[in-house]
Amino acid sequence: HTVRRQSIKRGEPRQMPSLPHTAESTVREEHFSSRRKQLEDYLTKILKMPMYRNYHGTMEFVGVSQLSFIHDLGPKGIEGFIMKRSGGHRIPGLNCCGQGRMCYRWSKRWLVVKDSFLLYMKPDSGAISFVLLVDKEFNIKIGQKETETKYGLQIDNLSRSLILKCNSYRHAQWWRQGIDEFIRKHGKDFLTEHRFGSYAAVQENTLAKWPVLCLQTAHAMFSSTPFFFIRLSPEIFMKRPVVEGNRWRLDCILKRKA
Questions:
Q1: Residue 45: how many CA atoms within 13 Å on its side-chain side?
Q2: What is the pTM of this model?
Q3: What's the CA angle centered on 45, arms 37 and 123, to 5 degrees?
Q4: Using CB atoms within 10 A of its CB, is residue 41 exposed (0-12), middle (13-18) or buried (19+)?
Q5: How does pLDDT run across 172-229, given as a tens digit for each residue?
Q6: Where is this region: Disordered (predicted)?
Q7: 122 phi, psi to nearest 5 deg
Q8: Contact yes or no for 218/247 (Cβ under 8 A)
Q9: Beta-sheet pairing, 117-121 with 128-133
Q10: Per-residue pLDDT for 43 more than 90?
């Protein structure tokens, strides 16, 4: 901490703000609004100080990560630490080869909820381990009977059943309600099937027109003239749900065509 204090740039706030000393039980009802303002000012001052803002305990308390406020990733849902069970993939080769609870592993991960997907990251490095897309089979179950886990939470889509373990039933209920309400509000277009069997809704008045039949588009790239260019991530799956491994991943399709 001494090294950190000495390395703080000049001009940055250095003095630790103080919380009100009055006990909560002694605050009168007419003073609640001013008390709330004091707490807001305290948190604001804390978050203006890089040393405290970037501290993992602060980020966990506020519920934010390095992906929270990236505009292109969509609106921010709830975030936090969870215990994730291994397995649950519906893609051959990605599941544990054994059977029963002895084969499962539990890992601590940081779960991020967005409008069209959920992802979890490794807490030490921030590396994204898995992305769970919101699709027409997206569903959330809670309880030991459904998940075979005490205080368990199960999130399903077409490619995976993700099992989470919470600290209590109330904690599991908080995650379930937070995810469900956020997805229903911001990602409802991905919960139903659209024309031509597409997972995405038709977007009007947009600068970029995404082809609904992605496979036909990929084929047209090699069979029609003049050529045109599509800027896409090479890891995107052109056919969903993902039930045949990486066969329909864009870079694998291009490799076969080449």
A1: 13
A2: 0.67
A3: 110
A4: exposed
A5: 999 999 999 999 999 998 898 887 777 777 777 776 555 444 445 555 555 554 544 5
A6: 1-30
A7: -75, 130
A8: no
A9: antiparallel
A10: no
